[in-house]
Amino acid sequence: MDTAAGTSSAPEQARGPVGETTAGAALPGSMPGSTARPAARSTAGAASTLSPLVPLPGGTYRRGSTEFYPDEAPVHEVTVGPFEIEQHPVTNAQFAAFVDATGYVTVAERPLDPADYPGVAVEDLQPGALVFTPTAGPVNLSDWRQWWRWQPGARWSTPHGPDSSVEGREDHPVVQVSYEDAQAYAAWAGRSLPTEAEWEYAGRGGLDGARFAWGDEYQPDGELLANHWQGSFPYRNTGARGWVGTSPVGTFPANGFGLDDMTGNVWEWTSSFYTPNHAVDARTAEEVAAARDALTIEMPACCAPSTGAAMAAAHPAPHDPLGSRAPVEGAGGVPGDSSDALAAASAEPGSAIPRKVLKGGSHLCAPEYCLRYRPAARSPQAVDTATSHIGFRCVVRPPVAVAPSMPASTRNLLG
Ligand SMILES: [Cu+2]
């Protein structure tokens, strides 16, 4: 494994104009039923630092796409209830406030238990995370290990390793957060993580069925509208509006709901377990697993190490997979996501670590390689894995009235 903290390849670093756009800056965009952005809601201990919430009415929309990757199909109608969603991804400054207030230690900062990794040298069990590193030149794009490395000391505050920091990047999205970390922040904020259906509804910004968050045309009037890879992947990134890597939230225009960075910049965690396609979303875990195992179409693995195999690349499989203590959301009014069986079915074959759906694509998505900076795009991610291009944002739902007579088929539509 690569344990070289001082590796010769320079990790990707933003080199754009720091501070040119401030977090939460008002940008053009309309919200349903309102012309002004709402102020941040007051929640215990966190009020002044949380992202503003944008209220969305909910409704029925067409989820998915048949134009790109098989896991986005079929296009189908989904109904979501009203909810509020954070205007932009959680920033480094916001995550720092959470850590300051709680002393929270992220998964990437926790030591790996030698008992879980017999035969592995103790020095190879340092806390760390996955860091993207550009290659020297063109490489075979089928092997993500060429541009992802396990970096000891990589964590949210030093996202590219011990020599990096988030200083001057306070208004960039936080990265190197696992699913558990995102959930912990949301709980502190009195908020939740969105379901996949909620996220895609929000990401579409009211443009039902559109290819991108801004419409069907990739670059209307030649304008780049999301932070995704510019140049040749994975070795030359000429920058998105000057930014290589993450960009300050709100650097690009908001979508029709007034939401910043819904596509591009960083992938965002959702609470939904990954399914091989939408046709099996509302079925049993057995059907999901069967569909997963039958999925023989070779999908480009995005710009991301999509599964716990990333960890396995650096470490042999632990006896007690981290997934076994992975939090499962669902009992409190998030339909469809509560089943242990669905968690198991979401895992990569041969792995016990559940995978959640990531949405939105990231600054690493390169058009010639990964067309996932779209609302319909999805990517499976093992819940224990943190990388330099995954972040999150939170939602707030109205209190759910208990409706014991609600038929299961209706519940599933919400998931
Ligand atoms: Cu991608």
TrEMBL record:
Residues 33-49, 336-346 have a biased composition (Low complexity). It comes from Oerskovia enterophila. InterPro entries: CTDL_fold, Sulfatase_Mod_Factor_Kinase, SUMF_dom, SUMF_sf. GO terms for molecular function: protein serine/threonine kinase activity. Its EC number is 2.7.11.1. It comes from the Bacteria. The gene is pkn1. This is Serine/threonine-protein kinase pkn1. Residues 1-67, 313-346 are annotated as: Disordered. Residues 1-11 have a biased composition (Polar residues). Keywords: Kinase, Transferase. The keyword Kinase applies. The keyword Kinase applies. Residues 53-282, 350-395 form the Sulfatase-modifying factor enzyme-like domain. Pfam families: FGE-sulfatase.
